[in-house]
Amino acid sequence: MHHATNLAAYRGYLRAFVARTAQERDDTFTSALLAIHDEAPEALTQEEIASILFSLSFAGHETTNYLIGNVVRRLLEEPARWDAVVADPTLIPGAVDETLRYDPSVPVWRRVTKRPVTLGGVDVPEGAKLFLWLAAAGRDASIFPEPERFDLRRVDASKTLALGKDFLPFVNPDLSKFLPHLHDRLTMNPARIIACPMTQHGHEDTQQSVANTA
Predict the structure, then answer these.
(1) Of 32, 76, 107, 169, which one is least surrounded by beta carbons within 10 A?
(2) From CA 139, how far away is CA 119, in angstroms rounded?
(3) 48 to each of 3, 11, 175, how far by Cα in Å?
(4) Structural domain total, the chain
């Protein structure tokens, strides 16, 4: 209940922030969105701008947070993987892509159809609420050979949908900024990482174990 109350309060703060920025424009992302709103108020409402800011708060934090934990987890569960990446840092980008494919930060997401569509032989009406299992896309054998095998050298791992596709194309998440910091972690003694129980999608557990190395 406390968590839900805080989230509701945060949404309220963002609504007020958008309304305030609408009156006092500046050189920020929010003002850029409000410029779009000015041109077509119904195409992008202030409520939707607040929702975008809310989503970005987590998209820019939780996805990276969980990604770091998942990468470290997958490398440590097979010591040879860890040793390979420490010995050859050029494997780091592949390790990130393969982790996103094999164990994505956000396994599922929600969408609402804007028009009737047929997917896989199933007719989906307009306004249907969909629960997209993004993690399943990374295990599609028609795209990824031997999908159940974690492979640091997989050449097609970047085809993953772990971070979605064409969402807010004007926002460019630059994972390369994250890679040097990951390398610093990988070159330390893995014994410093505190072991903890891991579940099938142990995001919270691995997140805590990585945090304990700081």
Answers:
(1) 169
(2) 19
(3) 22, 11, 26
(4) 2
Q: 49 with 77, same domain? A: no
Same-domain check for residues 49 and 133? no
Burial of residue 18 (CB within 10 Å: 0-12, 13-18, 19+) is buried
Q: How far apart are CA 182 and CA 93, in angstroms?
A: 10
**What do you get for the CA distance between the two ends of the chain, in Å?**
30
Q: At what angle do helices 79-87 and 62-76 cross, to 10 degrees?
A: 110
CATH number, residue 144: 1.10.630.10
Whether residue 64 sits in one domain with residue 52: no
pLDDT band of residue 172 (cuts 50, 70, 90) is very low
Q: How far apart are CA 162 and CA 160, in angstroms?
A: 5
Q: pLDDT band at residue 204, thresholds of 50, 70 and 90?
A: very low
Same domain, 51 and 87: no
C-alpha pair distances (Å), 162 with each of 30, 52, 178: 26, 19, 17
User: Which domain range does residue 75 map to?
Assistant: 60-211
Amino acid type, 149 = R
Nearest CA to 163 among 52, 62, 93? Answer: 62
